[in-house]
Predict the structure of Thiazole synthase.
Amino acid sequence: MKVYDIELHSNLMLGTAQYPSLAHLTGAIRASGCAVVTVSLRRETADGTGAGFWDMLRQTGARVLPNTAGCHSVQEAVTTARMAREVFETDWIKLEVIGHADSLQPDVFGLVEAAGILAADGFQVFPYTTDDLVVGEKLLAAGCEVLMPWGAPIGSGQGLRNPDALRTMRAHFAGVPLIVDAGLGRPSDAAAAMELGMDGVLLNSAVANAGDPVAMARAMALAVQAGRAGFLADPMERRDMAVPSTPVLGLAELM
Amino acid sequence: MKVYDIELHSNLMLGTAQYPSLAHLTGAIRASGCAVVTVSLRRETADGTGAGFWDMLRQTGARVLPNTAGCHSVQEAVTTARMAREVFETDWIKLEVIGHADSLQPDVFGLVEAAGILAADGFQVFPYTTDDLVVGEKLLAAGCEVLMPWGAPIGSGQGLRNPDALRTMRAHFAGVPLIVDAGLGRPSDAAAAMELGMDGVLLNSAVANAGDPVAMARAMALAVQAGRAGFLADPMERRDMAVPSTPVLGLAELM
Amino acid sequence: MKVYDIELHSNLMLGTAQYPSLAHLTGAIRASGCAVVTVSLRRETADGTGAGFWDMLRQTGARVLPNTAGCHSVQEAVTTARMAREVFETDWIKLEVIGHADSLQPDVFGLVEAAGILAADGFQVFPYTTDDLVVGEKLLAAGCEVLMPWGAPIGSGQGLRNPDALRTMRAHFAGVPLIVDAGLGRPSDAAAAMELGMDGVLLNSAVANAGDPVAMARAMALAVQAGRAGFLADPMERRDMAVPSTPVLGLAELM
Amino acid sequence: MKVYDIELHSNLMLGTAQYPSLAHLTGAIRASGCAVVTVSLRRETADGTGAGFWDMLRQTGARVLPNTAGCHSVQEAVTTARMAREVFETDWIKLEVIGHADSLQPDVFGLVEAAGILAADGFQVFPYTTDDLVVGEKLLAAGCEVLMPWGAPIGSGQGLRNPDALRTMRAHFAGVPLIVDAGLGRPSDAAAAMELGMDGVLLNSAVANAGDPVAMARAMALAVQAGRAGFLADPMERRDMAVPSTPVLGLAELM
């Protein structure tokens, strides 16, 4: 997957919130083989964990994608993005403008506006969006070169709630990197996203909230590879009527 | 996975029918890393391909599980099993007793009867069955030590048509190896089967009928590992209400 | 729907267990307009409720279909059926042979055996069965002239767990009355069953356990009519690509 | 259902496009018992059919809801709405601003803008929108007092593609009339929409493209009533584990 002229060695991105410990997070990043981790400003600025976290990240070699998690307005998101650029020394920003506190769903109006402001300001924006095709077009027009549609609400673990909408996006945005962000819960969800032809997935809760986050990170890495390879291998068509998978054996032929 | 006291190094079994060529089949077996391949008698006895096929199998090191594909009666299945034992020099038999020509669904009555006859005759029976719990109990009572419930009709590629029924089987047959046989089409299907706690999957059409069978075999091998690892890592619960995967960031905290 | 040469004026059958009161049951039967109610022996023989229940039934004019609910063996089911014939003075029997205490799923082996015994004894058997095509054939061969496949486990309210299997049965048993029994929860489930071409549905928990059983009975009656009428009206095909439902309006045409 | 202070006697609205003949349309309107029909300007202005159509509508007594079908820009939609107000002598307007020619999905940006313009101009706007909660809030803020979220793309007949999103809308917009518009195909789809607590459904292709549009209109009317009544009757919970719907009958109790 190539985004903003950077070739990434993995189709998996990992969020860094909610892990039981820094050791679990470190293990998960390594086990996932991810090329990118998302980080919120709090990590850097809050209490003592910040320093260890930062050192750890450096050692894994993962590229940092700062996010604007928790921002509910354009102003808040833009301000946070600018602070993140200074703190993390990168033009990359995962843009979240939340429109509803319970479901954390994107406010697509604020999102497009903020994306335009940030792109004009030199940011390379990764917008967390819905599966709305028209919103996707506006984000591209605003300067985004990648889209991150949701699979389901953040932290729900429901998997792909509307695969047809994602399939429509894939068909429409043939040349645009699409990364499913949010809502995945199991390896089969990640594989299914990749089988739709998506370029990558971003996971957080599914790994951090698993009983064994490190093992789940490894499972997800395998699933992403499996789904991608399956997509490229051109799967059989689903058939309504069953056909023999082993040619029928007449006993007469054996004599 | 351990079946009939044999420890298998892979959770994946592969059927050998319908490949575009012997080279594709060989490549798929190697790429899948499968420990077991199913074979019908015709392979051994039909025209010229038999010899090359047999040599190839030996070189892959995969264990042969002969099947009774295409048998529609107890008598036919038992006779075929006995011939297969002599030809393939193994007590293992994948027992299929087909009850419906179009859907190739098992005839569970004939299946239980044939399983009893063969088990009494020293066979180690792998019964291809439906997702019916009570039928599973009868098969175990008849002497089977493994069950192979379907995911969907043979060759349909529909995936898991009734995951609840498979989940019920898994809960009920806690100590019995369960291998999902038939109906899977994509890597995500194989992963989903393993996430239910199944011990393995048997694939044929999904690999043989893919555009690139060798690449699909590799994808399926990754998917089975991903699903198994995901199951063991204890996935998060699905949640009806979304929760933040990144703790909300108040700007005040940053100052 | 015609079963065993009786023309029924409704496609809905109602079970009589689990209602909050006899008044609720009476109201539900009337509101549903059902032609048939299923009854277990206990109703007639247990404490004081029996007499009022029986009088009430007579007044509704609904035909009684005794059942063998709770029977776990052929012997128990056959004995119960014979007692029911004397008590209820009918050759009709809804045959249940339960194979698993938790899920109450049918034991298809015991079911076919008991059906054969009862049919030979002059009963008109309504077998509660799974969605297994081959089992259905055995039941017809045993003398049944109607099949009652499940939608989901009894009392689960899950709706149609495996619509493809029911669709296969419908296609295969073109001339046989098929009544979906068990597992339905909502009006849309009942409508969906009828849209598959089923001849009727039998409901119990969905009505008895609703907050307002009488209102739910009425809702279900409407749903069954809606689904049947929809089936007969030949629904549009589902389309993968959207098409306009209103012809596009060019402003030029308005001038 | 009460919208814009008008109490409607039916929860069903019907589109008037695509019928095989005016007689079919007339029959469908009558059979559906719908209180409202949507009409595009072309009906009134095009060739000869207009007059008969208009007379027919008057006779059915159905209220006319003009729409802006086929409009792809704010300007086009606003202009069309204003012409429709004069032609049809009503402030009601079903607002469609299409964002994608293939799927006919709403352009939610144009939709909110046009809704604001029209509401300020005294229109009573019925916006055809997606299942996006935040967009719904913007439409209400723009002056709409009803929302018409899609079930699936127009004319697809896919039913409810994302019931969870609709459920979230229902919970969030407790006091707002919600009418599912577009994508329904079968009576069970209409019932399922009403079971979510929706206030109504708007149908067009599902009726017009059925083999027998008049019979399908009647089926849909029943389904809407069934779903609404089922919702109000408080359906049973879906249960993962089956429970007996008939209390188990011990033979001992019968003696």
Remarks:
- The mean pLDDT of chain B is 90.
- The interface with chain D takes residues 240 of chain B (CB under 8 Å).
- Chain B has one domain: 9-233.
